[in-house]
């Protein structure tokens, strides 16, 4: 369904795919996402039959389980005009990788494609589909932004968060060196190859520290937890948040790291 | 070289604490990335050239048999000889026979990854023929008894002090007090030493960046000119190349050349681009008396028609490794295979089987930077995932990962059970996180907490809180 159609019928109905990490570790990101979507004029629903997008299985090579999970997600979200996830990597899984799982399957191929067409990452949905320019938030902070790989390279998310952050009163952007280089999270990679992952995230936090920012933002909770965990371990004062929390003006929850060692 | 891909983790751990290596790897990041970007920015049609290069190679791979036949006919017509080698062993045998027939004692070699793949040097040495690498990087690692750690910059893992010490150790005929403190003096010395070797060589062996079907030419690109000397000074020139190096025409070659050096070193073109078509003709002032091409398959034709076919577009520019965050911290030798980095993580299992090499396609964060810079638009992460699938299907995935995943998937596929478990587990975990709201260590999560704190959950799950909020809203309405 196009936006115009759904608008004619009222507000676009958005299914919020909260992502497993947000659900389990950082509910405030879910609420911030819901608030941003509602502010943009959407009717927000959170289907209860959602767990995970299936990336851990997919990237471990377990196609059978991935497909079962994908079918479950498609069924749970099929009724909505849009499916929005506050994570580039999960959104890309739904949008870019689901259709391939059903290639050649008469029953599912088209269904998966229709589903894929209405999936979006939160920030790009706000800017590119709902045409949001200013979320009305304010925060006095020097911030830096990490471009999470899937969002950046699979969905082309680069300027969208920066534009919205640019209109948050008080936010000053301090771009870090290599903001578009992987933080070493990589899903199960970070535990399977923890030595290598550590070396990569060490470079990342060095760049974060060198940027002079006091608040690190990104759009993916996996990367955020990885960088936050490393910053914390190194005793850094840099605070870490999902960008949606700042854009929604919901920064009352303590940050993922920082403030109080 | 010995395949140690299954020891990737141990190799990587060693590399991570090797201070000299870490310093040298910094040069990969500093040098290659910026230069590539600069040369790409200066060429507005770069992406269009990538697309057409990809299309050219796809077309060739769809009709590879026809182009190979055409190529062979053209080589023969120009007086050269094409030898078909199905396996690495076949290729070694063929090259050795050519060298023996020429009564060769010394052969010079231009830089060639394919001869690394077939371990040609060891084979020649074992048969009493001395191979001399003439590419500066290859020459250095040959002195050290090492293998390339990068496909275009074989000695990128070394620093100039190491090279100086190797030169002093090996070049004992030169004055002890000579100044070798600068790269340029090292280069001059290598040039001096190698010059003598070119004249002594009976056979010159090169690889090929392209084989042109239209003309039967082999093409090499170098920055040092050593390839030209290798192939023109010996009596016999042997080209060793794999079958996917074919391009249809000279025009196609020139198109792909425009993306090759830019992707590799950020140059518009390599300093030398040399086309060889057959042996010396009557009117030619120089060139070899014999021109042989050894066409190697070594598993490649089996990739055609599979999900790995796209890998055969690779033009060996090394951009993927230059941009790979994993390569940046572990270097090329950690991969324990001839081809390192992302392209190696796809190609090595194709050549050596997934049983021994499963670590390589797993050792990637899937950040996608390799695919982003690949001039031939090879979907490297996707193909690494395919290898993981093959591994999983065949029960080769390490059991910890397999059972961990199955445990997770069991819950992920059962939303009610998942929510029930999470609604108890997460609040408990949150309380255990205490006032610091993080875990410094946690059973079963050592891979994470060895180096990072694990942020504690905020409290109840999002689903729990959302459901409660919705219920309150409903009640308020009533």
Question: Can you offer a commentary on this structure?
Answer:
The complex is a heterodimer of chains A (261) and B (478). With 261 residues, chain A is α/β, with parallel strands linked by helices. Chain A has two domains: 13-128, Rossmann fold (3-Layer(aba) Sandwich); 133-247, Rossmann fold, CATH 3.40.50. Chain A has helices at residues 3-8, 20-25, 27-39, 55-60, 63-77, 88-101, 109-117, 122-129, 149-155, 159-166, 189-192, 194-210, 221-233, 243-247, and strands at 13-16, 43-45, 82-85, 119-121, 138-145, 169-173, 215-218, 239-242. In chain A, the strands form two sheets. In chain A, strands 2-1-3-4 form a four-stranded parallel β-sheet, with helices on both faces. In chain A, strands 6-5-7-8 form a four-stranded parallel β-sheet, sandwiched between helices. The radius of gyration of chain A is 18 Å and the shape is globular. Chain A starts with a helix and ends in a 14-residue tail after the last helix. The relative contact order of chain B is 0.13. In chain B, helix 3 crosses helix 12 (250-264), helix 9 crosses helix 10 and helix 15 runs parallel beside helix 19. Chain B is elongated, with a radius of gyration of 27 Å. The N and C termini of chain B lie far apart (76 Å). Among the domains of chain B are: 43-298, NagB/RpiA/CoA transferase-like (Rossmann fold, 3-Layer(aba) Sandwich); 415-477, no CATH class. A six-stranded parallel β-sheet of chain B has the order 1-10-7-4-2-3, sandwiched between helices. The mean pLDDT of chain B is 96. Chain B is an alpha/beta fold. At the A-B interface, helix 2, helix 3, helix 4, helix 5 and helix 9 of A face helix 1, helix 14, helix 18, helix 19 and helix 20 of B.
Report the portion of residues of chain B in β strands.
Answer: 5-15%
Described by strand count, sense and barrel closure, the largest sheet of chain B is: 6 strands, parallel
Mean pLDDT of chain A: 95
CATH class of the largest domain in chain A: Alpha Beta
CATH topology of the largest domain in chain A: Rossmann fold
Strand order of the largest sheet of chain B: 1-10-7-4-2-3
Q: Span between N and C termini of chain B?
A: 76 Å
Uncertain spans of chain A: 1-6
């Amino acid at each position: 369904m196009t936006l115009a159609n759904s608008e004619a019928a009222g507000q676009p109905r958005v299914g919020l795919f909260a992502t497993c990490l947000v659900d389990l570790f950082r509910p405030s990101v879910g609420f911030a996402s819901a608030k941003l979507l509602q502010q943009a004029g959407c009717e927000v629903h959170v289907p209860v039959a959602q767990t995970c997008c299936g990336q851990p299985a997919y990237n471990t090579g377990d196609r059978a389980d991935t497909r079962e999970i994908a079918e479950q997600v498609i069924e749970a979200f099929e009724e909505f005009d849009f499916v929005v996830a506050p994570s580039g990597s999960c959104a890309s899984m739904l949008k870019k990788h689901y259709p391939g799982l059903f290639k050649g399957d008469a029953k599912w191929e088209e269904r998966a494609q229709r589903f894929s067409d209405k999936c979006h990452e939160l920030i790009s949905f706000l800017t590119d589909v709902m045409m949001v320019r200013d979320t009305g938030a304010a925060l006095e902070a020097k911030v830096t932004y990490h471009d999470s790989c899937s969002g950046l390279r699979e969905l082309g998310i680069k300027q969208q968060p920066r534009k919205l952050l640019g209109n948050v009163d008080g936010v000053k952007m301090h771009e870090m060196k290599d903001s578009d280089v992987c933080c070493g999270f990589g899903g199960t990679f970070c535990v399977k190859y923890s030595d290598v992952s550590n070396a990569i995230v060490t470079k990342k936090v060095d760049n974060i520290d060198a940027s002079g920012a006091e608040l690190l933002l990104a759009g993916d909770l996996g990367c955020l937890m990885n960088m936050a965990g490393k910053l914390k371990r190194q005793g850094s004062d840099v605070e870490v948040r999902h960008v949606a929390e700042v854009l929604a003006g919901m920064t009352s929850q303590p940050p993922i790291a920082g403030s109080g060692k | 070289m010995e395949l140690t891909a299954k020891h990737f983790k141990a190799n990587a751990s060693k590399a991570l604490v090797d201070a000299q290596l870490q310093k040298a790897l910094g040069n990969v990041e500093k040098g290659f990335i910026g230069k590539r970007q600069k040369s790409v920015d200066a060429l507005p049609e770069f992406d269009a050239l990538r697309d057409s290069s990809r299309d050219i190679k796809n077309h060739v791979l769809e009709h590879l048999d026809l182009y190979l036949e055409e190529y062979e006919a053209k080589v023969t017509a120009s007086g050269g000889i094409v030898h078909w080698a199905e396996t690495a062993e076949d290729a070694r045998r063929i090259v050795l026979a050519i060298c023996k027939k020429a009564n060769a004692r010394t052969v010079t070699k231009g830089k060639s990854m394919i001869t690394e793949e077939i371990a040609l040097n060891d084979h020649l040495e074992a048969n009493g023929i001395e191979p001399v690498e003439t590419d500066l990087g290859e020459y250095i690692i040959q002195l050290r008894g090492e293998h390339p750690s990068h496909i275009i910059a074989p000695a990128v893992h070394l620093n100039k002090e190491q090279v100086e010490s190797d030169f002093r150790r090996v070049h004992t005929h030169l004055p002890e007090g000579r100044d070798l403190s600068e790269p340029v003096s090292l280069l001059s010395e290598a040039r001096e030493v190698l010059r003598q070797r070119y004249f002594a060589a009976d056979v010159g062996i090169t690889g090929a960046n392209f084989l042109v079907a239209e003309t039967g030419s082999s093409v090499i690109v170098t920055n040092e000119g050593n390839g030209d000397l290798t192939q023109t000074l010996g009596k016999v020139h042997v080209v060793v190349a794999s079958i996917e190096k074919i391009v249809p025409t000279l025009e196609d070659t020139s198109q792909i050349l425009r993306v090759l050096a830019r992707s590799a070193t950020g140059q518009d073109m390599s300093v030398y681009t040399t086309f060889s078509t057959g042996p010396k003709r009557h009117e030619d002032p120089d060139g070899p008396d014999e021109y042989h091409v050894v066409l190697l398959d070594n598993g490649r034709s089996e990739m055609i028609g599979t999900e790995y076919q796209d890998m055969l577009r690779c033009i060996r520019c090394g951009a993927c490794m230059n941009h790979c965050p994993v390569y940046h911290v572990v270097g090329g030798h950690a991969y324990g295979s001839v081809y390192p980095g992302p392209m190696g993580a796809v190609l090595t299992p194709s050549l050596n089987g997934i049983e021994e090499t499963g670590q390589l396609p797993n050792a990637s964060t899937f950040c996608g930077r390799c695919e982003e810079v690949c001039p031939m638009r090879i979907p490297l992460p996707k193909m690494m995932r395919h290898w993981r699938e093959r591994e999983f299907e065949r029960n080769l995935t390490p059991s910890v990962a397999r059972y961990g995943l199955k445990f997770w998937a069991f819950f992920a596929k059962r939303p009610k059970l998942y929510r029930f478990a999470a609604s108890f587990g997460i609040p408990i975990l949150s309380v255990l996180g205490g006032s610091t709201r993080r875990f410094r260590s946690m059973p079963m999560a050592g891979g994470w907490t060895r180096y990072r704190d694990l942020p504690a959950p905020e409290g109840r799950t999002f689903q729990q809180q959302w459901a409660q909020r919705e219920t309150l809203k409903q009640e308020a309405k009533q």
